[in-house]
Amino acid sequence: MTTLTASPSPLDRLRYAAGRLRLLDGRGRAAWVLGLCLAYFAVLVAASRLMGDAGLGTDFLHKKLPPCLEYPFGTDWLGRDMLVRTVKGLTRSLGIGLLAATVSSVVSAMLGTLSATMGKRTDAVVTTLIDLVMATPHLVLLILVSFACGGGATGVIIAVAVSHWTRLARIIRAEILQLQQAEYVMVSRRLGRSPWWIARKHMLPHIVPQFTIGLILLFPHAILHAAGLTFLGFGLSPHNPSIGILLSESMRHISTGYWWLAILPGLSLLVTVKLFDVLGNGLRVITDPKTSQE
Known about the structure:
The protein is mostly helical and 294 residues long. Helices cover 71% and strands 0% of the residues. The protein has helices at 10-20, 26-51, 82-117, 119-135, 138-148, 152-163, 166-179, 183-190, 195-206, 208-232, 243-250, 260-287. The radius of gyration is 25 Å and the shape is elongated.
């Protein structure tokens, strides 16, 4: 007798094909997520370039309009298109976050490497500096540094970079301290290699994944704190659109019923920040063999 077997359904065939292509495992899902996040940021930057400055001009005939087809984010009290202002504000925040996170990550890598490779005295100095920065109230440190640097984009970048390097520096320091007992590092010491040579040839290439993920995960903090400083009046100039300025200006009108002036830019900021967090976690899954199959 022949046994009849049910033919696979189209859904089963699709799952099988996706599994063959490694699209449904941990790294496959993370790759799709990374692609979608990068596509969002690319569209955001491209939209900011294509929109121009037409929507930033005053138009009193269309002021305080709620969201509609012509103005998806509505207009403000001067008739300016809130969608254009939000997109350009997010793009400006991305640029500031990129510079601040990059500077902070480079400082973290340098100090973390020096702390772990240049002896006990250097380690004591760096760890004391880390404890001192982390013990200072975060918002107070941001305001003081930004005010001392004259505010503006430069002040925000320096303030965020100075206050956000400590955690990544600790991670890099701990990673390098574990590498100190590796066999190839001990062989290099016996061969008379200097600590700087060992750090440059053995340590720095090993911490590239931690550095990259830390850099990406610093983006959300940099963007949020830059917006917070601008909201408090210690950041960017009100003449240029940014999310902090939009939220600060909307506080004068939100109590009168113009909810879209604060809600829609605020939600856009939260979505952008969350996508950076998702991007960092996805990159961690791809680069870490322990989590690649989760």
